[in-house]
Every structure is written in C-alpha cells, then in structure tokens.
Amino acid sequence: MRYLIIVFICSVFQYASAQKVPRAFKNESDSIPQFQFGKIEYDSLLYWNKKMPKDALLVDGLTADVDLTFDIDTSGKIENIVASDYSLRVSKEFIENNPASILKRLNDELTLEAKRLLLLTDGLWEPAKLNNQKIVKRIYTTIDLSAYDERLNGSQEFLDSLHKNLVYFHLATTDVTDNAYKQRNLFKAAVRKMKEKKTKLAIVYFLQAIDFNKNDINSYYNLGICYYRTHDVQNACKCWNTGKMLGDKDVEELLKKYCK
Known about the structure:
The chain has helices at 15-18, 39-48, 54-57, 92-97, 100-119, 156-164, 179-195, 199-212, 217-229, 233-245, 252-258; strands at residues 8-13, 34-35, 63-72, 78-89, 125-126, 128-130, 133-135, 137-146. The chain is α+β, with helices and mostly antiparallel strands. It folds into two domains: 1-164, no CATH class; 177-260, Tetratricopeptide repeat domain (Serine Threonine Protein Phosphatase 5, Tetratricopeptide repeat), CATH 1.25.40.10. The strands form three sheets. It has a four-stranded antiparallel β-sheet, covered by helices on one side. Helix 2 crosses helix 6 (156-164), helix 8 packs antiparallel against helix 9 (217-229) and helix 9 (217-229) packs antiparallel against helix 10. The chain starts with 7 loop residues before the first strand and ends with a helix.
C-alpha cells in the first residue's frame, strides 16, 4: 500500500532558552535576530516550499528533526550554516529490513533539504543589535519534518495562515511530486504576498513557483514587478525578457519604458 507523507515544517526558535541574553543586552534598542515578517510567515514559507527527498517519501511514518546553527550578519543575511544535530525516527520494521547506509543517506538528504529551506529566508532577517549597533549573532532553529497527520496539531494561527495564503487543506492529499499542484499554490501565495505589500517575501514564492514551471509567463511578469518595486531593475528586466521569449506580449511596454 502506498503511503503519502506530507511534511510539516515547524520552526522552533530556541536561541533565547539555549543561551541567556548577555548582560550587555540591556538597552531598549538591544535585540536578537528576527525574521522580518514574523514567525507565522516563516513557518508558512518553509512549509509550502518543501521538497521532500524521494527516498523519504517511501518510508511510512518517517519524521526527522534537524537543528541548524547559523549566523545572521549585519545586513540580515545567513552565514555559516551548520547542522548541529538531527534525529531520524522510522519504524522498527524499516530498520530491520534496511542497511545502515540507507539511514545515513536519509539523514544526509533531509539535512540538505533543511539547509535549502533555511536559505530561502536569506536576507529577510532583522539583525541583532547591541547598544543600538547592528552585530553578527549566531542562533539556531529546529526544522521538524513530520508525517501528514501530525501537522494538524499545529497552532490555529498557523493553520489559519495557510488558508489566508490560498492553500487549502483538501489539496494536501495531492501527491507532493505533482509539480503543477505545487506551482499553482506557490503562485497564489506569491500573489497574496504582493497584495499584502510583502514584496521580498513574494519574490521568494515566485522564484520557487518558477522552479516547478520554468515556462510560466505569469510568474515571470509578476516577479519582474516585485524586483522593480525593490529597485532591482536589472533582475526585473531579466524576468520580463524571459517572459517575452516565452511569448508574453504584455511585457513589451514594460521593457520599452523601464529597460532601455
């Protein structure tokens, strides 16, 4: 019998409990790194951009925790990612019927996926401050890869956010390898972020949507607009030119006006 595993990405920021805030952090302006759009948006971004390794999809009831330690630099970018710990949980039957090399490969693949997901947030962080000065700060997060039924135990606020992003639970039964399904929902989430004026977040969603369908002229058109809004004219024009090559006539006016 074929089992479908849908991954629930639940980030748990534990840096506050893992290490006490230094005594130097005493001014009202002092802070630790924060995702610019909040924890709910962070969880949603990782959840809808997951690409579960094919080997993991064949394992019934697989869950895994991956602890990633990383620096947030003074510009809000991620540096020096290290997988500090991981915990892979599978059935006793699976362990008995598969060599240790299979488990190691699963660990390696899941760790790579956790790092890829974290890097989607690169540049979207508010850096730490000490005495009103931006500083580099090392933090960690746990990315929890759990079976489909476990994700329903998430907070109501997180579940509501998934609906808000126009991604509905009845679609979650679709095979996660269905690229058209993934692309549609990522595109819808991106458009929602545009409407909410969360342009940098929309860029991440559009890029991932294109990754599933590199011929989607609507994603290139809107991604170009997002880049232009962030004053990245070079990438905006690149997106519109790609759309033109794919047959999108609507970008011709934009190219003439903004890409001389």
